[in-house]
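Board notes, transcribed. Complex of a protein with zinc ion.
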Amino acid sequence: MKTTTFPHHQICGAIHLHTLYSDGGVSFGELIDAARQCELDYIVVTDHMTLKGREAGYEKFHDDLMVLVGYEHNDPQKQNHYLAIGTGKAFPQLQKPQQYIDAVKENGGIGFLAHPAEKRNYFGGLPPYPWTEWDATGYDGIELWNQMSDWMENLRSWRSFFRLLYPRRFLSNVPDELLEKWDNLNQSRFVSGIGGIDAHTRKLTIGPFAYTVFPIKVELKGVRTHLYMPQKLTDFPFDQARLLFLKALKNGNGFISNYRRGDAKGTQIYLQQHENGTIQLPGLNEHSNCVPAVLKVQLPSEGTVRFLRNGAVAKSVKGQSAEFEITGGGVYRVEVYKGKNAWIYSNPFPVG
Ligand SMILES: [Zn+2]
Ligand SMILES: [Zn+2]
């Protein structure tokens, strides 16, 4: 087997952010400053039902930070939230989910089901908004890990007030039922997974106290989406960088991490075919994945690496690197844990 070095550049950023243009608590300027301080390569802002941030000219490079403006569509019942990214316009609200999925695609955009399995156990005033139209087709992916949903789901009683003070400590993992759903969807067609923050930077008022639950810089140090790209985004003119980014996101060429468990920058997850040494990224590639091959993981710090085949754990290894031999077809993916908390979820590798 020929040895080949991993020939890809990695970018890391935050998706699903709200600003004052809808119900977020920060201006675009504040959000951009925070993202730059956190050294993110990109952010994707998705205010509810509006592209005002794009109209105001924020969609461009801000030094090394790429800012993309999409929007979050919902149906007239406020259900079935959909992250529409890369469309030139926002569509009217009186549409069924299948209609806005189709409209986004027809206008050159890509779309992700937002917080599809959201449950909320505590706050009566903030009901859950799960995805209910599972018969819909044609969406590009799902928001696998939603930082806000994860946190809210576990907020069950006054004793959990503690969570308000240390919100990121409680981000645990993607619910099993959503992982199962995602694995099942990927048996029939590729469905990309992204991490979303759903940053609102809301002030929560409890009795006499008003508390900003997640200050924006804290929000940006949680769930992140990493993508493997041919080069740095800023090596390209903006329009080209934007298209390359949308393609990598749609094709799921990367993984999701929770920064709170460790900086996952530099993580390598790839499949290497034995016959010619070809390296394949997670998600969809130009060429399909052939066996025999080896799935390789290289981490910046130690974790427990789980290799999954068709949704079932096939091997678990603790360390900074791990390998898994693949001899037959299936849909393979990788999860990495720090203790009992999830750190990394790769996109799937469809094989055969
Ligand atoms: Zn939403
Ligand atoms: Zn949202």
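Residues 16, 18, 72, 198 surround zinc ion (ligand 2) (CB under 6 Å). The radius of gyration is 19 Å.
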